[in-house]
Amino acid sequence: MHLKKLLTLWVIKMDKKIFDIYDEHFPGEENVPDKFAGPVEDQEKLDDLRKSADVLKSLSSVSIDEKYFTNILPRFRENLEKKQRSFFYKKLIYSSSIAFSTLLLLVFSFQFMKTNFQSKVTQQNETMETVLPTASQDIYIASADQFSDSIVNNSAVKQEIDKTLNQSLSAASNSNDYILIKNTMDYNNVLSQLDDDELEKVYAQLQQTKIL
Amino acid sequence: MPEENPDYDLVRRFLNGDESSFNQLARKYQAKIYWHARRMTGNHLDADEIVQEVLLVLFEKLKNFNFQSSLFTWIYRITITRSINYIKRQKLRRFVSFDEEENCGLSTDDEIVKNIEDKEKLKKLDSVLQKLPEKQREIFLLRHFDELSYEEIAQITGKSVGGLKANYFHAFEKVVNLMGNKNG
Q1: What is the mean pLDDT of each successive set of 10 residues along chain A, which is 212 residues long?
Q2: Whole-angstrom distance, CA of residue B18 vs CA of residue B184
Q3: Is ipTM beyond 0.90?
Q4: Residue A89 sits in which domain range?
């Protein structure tokens, strides 16, 4: 039947009761059911409704290229492969980014711990420096005393001092204006060997002599 | 017995690693999926995208199939959800791009429909169906074109039989009027 001719069969106003009868025996009923015992107008309405429904269905019965349906599956397989490939790459990128982030986190944590440790050590040193300045000064003074004592008590140093002093004195003794007493022992020996007259003589002479 | 369902056997074989079973299932339902999506969206390219999406969902989610309902009900549920989501996405895309005519190029059926009268029929049907609200269109298609019982539709959509009957009546009346106006 031609399309235009079919479309003229449409009914504009639908009767719910008739529609229910149509719907109840839908689909596949060719004839009006036997139990339908309504007026003739209702029968006609039902027939019109059925024809309208058929027209509507006939609009849908079109033939499309079978190649389309044949190609659905190959195209699906192709899409699936693409999707799986992209999923693999996404997974790879995701895992890499997770691994990289973890690595980065570890590096930063290590760096942070290192900096923290160093700052703690510096802080500790600073505390030590502020707590112990007097102690270090005491240590310094004590060590200076110890050093001076060691010098004074050192026999080698003593000998060196005597030697230097004697050299200076002997150098001075070369001059005629001075009397050189080489050491205290000699001086004491000389004095013990002199009698009173000689001592007075020496005394008188000493008064006229310049002494170093 | 649900165990005697041939679809269950195919599903089990697929889950055991037999890829050809999936191909059999896809071949069995691809036309139903396509036509439902085609009538819901009103154009071939959108329908094709939905078919591919549904097959992908089937492939990935068949392991979750519980063998309690029929596979065909399960496939319809996926198809309906995907179609509605797709339509919503398209609407949003059109709204964001402010382009009403965005899909004009996509709705041509030149490549798959060769017959001129068939093209005209499809155009007329699409123009009428697209005027129905999505939920009403969905029920109308399931009942009128896919010839499912109200119980099956209720299982797919999760709506009551009474509600479905009322929806179908209103949709039918609207379609009849739209067709009448177009010819008047």
Answers
A1: 49 69 66 60 79 83 88 94 86 86 89 84 75 64 76 78 81 58 60 81 80 58
A2: 56
A3: no
A4: 71-103
